Amino acid sequence: MKNTIRLALIGILCLASVSCTKMPATTSAVELTLALRAGIYADVIKSCLPAFEKAHNVRCTVLELSEDALHASIIGEAQKAEGNIDFCMVDGSWMAECTAKKVLANLSALGYQLDDDIIPATTAICYNNDSLYLAPYYGNVTVMLYNRLVLKDVGYTADAVNAVDDIVQICLEAKKHHTLGFLYRGDTENNIVVDFLPFLCSYGGWVVDKDNKPTVNTPAFYNAMNTYLTLIQTGRSAKKDDLITAIANRSAAVAVGWPGWYTPERNSTMDYFALSGKATNDAPAYNANVYGIWTIGIPANSAHTTLATELLAYLMEPERQKQTVAYGGVPCRYSSLQDAAVLKKFPQYAVICKALESGIYRPVLETWPEFYTILGSEMKAIIDGKKSIHIGLTDAQTRLEAQLAVQ
């Protein structure tokens, strides 16, 4: 009986051994969690993931978040010893906070560097102490949305718009033709400030100096605000979707917009041009197109920094970025934005390239949200007629100096 049992056990073990050798070895896929800005920005990256997942035996989980939720998520995860996010999109205005809180992994130390095909100005926010922490991925930058038919009605073409003064004249004439002139985003303090910044830059002004001290109560700011009020009087406030619809339907002439909002179609009368950076035709040109670029990076506490670096390098490859144009991608690369085939289908990418070349990031301030909230509230008081330009800017300067002094 014992021998029979022993033989049976040996047989079972042999069968198990044979069975194990015949079963293919499988390795469970590593999971990478990506925190991305919801909308076209996430869609473009998602279009690239299947091939990477297959080649690297990885499963990518994508969190599509609003701007505020994305910011809160990556900053919150950074407080943990090991975070749950392996790859993320970062707005340039968060860089100071990300640096102060050591949110991001050093890409230079991980072996990744940017190449010279990337538009140089777009990389300014990506470095800290000569080390790379971010890569410019989606080239969102302010452009001027306009309706071609409205401009034609008032005797203009986009090529003839050489300065802010021309935009003012277009909007004044449009109002005479019983069409709205300028639409602006007045629904939040942030939108008020960002909508205004391209005009401020065109007058040679800015919100802080080289030491990040407020420069609001200045002649350049006053002149830009005065012009902005003239523009506002030709139109009205509008939220994003309403603004796009009004321009497309020939109900308004001009508005500040972003490529991430809208890709002009051949049968549409809506298009966009880049600001020249000149207030008047005989004035000097400044960098006046404000960046809303979505950069990509890796949280410092990711458990998969090596694999995440491979994903970042994969997404930044020139040919792969060019392929994303079909999905609404806006690379910060000359090889994409100046490609003949791309421009044949999307001629406005030449405008985006020009805007990116002469663009500027918002201030690198850890307290930028508090800064724009104060400035936006004072600007709103001016726009609503509750304060004069002089009083509003004086009050903004005083409040901003006090806010920065308590840092």
Describe what this molecule looks like in 3D.
- The protein has 407 residues and is an alpha/beta fold.
- The chain is built from 16 helices and 14 strands.
- The strands form four sheets. The chain has a five-stranded mixed sheet with strand order 2-1-3-13-6. Strands 9-8-10-7-11 form a five-stranded mixed sheet. It has a two-stranded antiparallel ribbon with strand order 4-5.
- The protein is globular, with a radius of gyration of 26 Å.
- The N terminus is likely disordered.
Strand order of the largest sheet: 2-1-3-13-6
Helix content: 40-55%
How are helices and strands ordered from N to C? HEHEHEHEEEEHHEHHEHEEEEHHHHHEHH
Overall geometry: globular
Structural class computed from helices and strand pairing = alpha/beta
Average per-residue pLDDT, rounded, comes to 92
Main sheet characteristics: 5 strands, mixed
Name the poorly predicted regions. Answer: 1-26
Percentage beta strand: 5-15%
Number of helices: 16
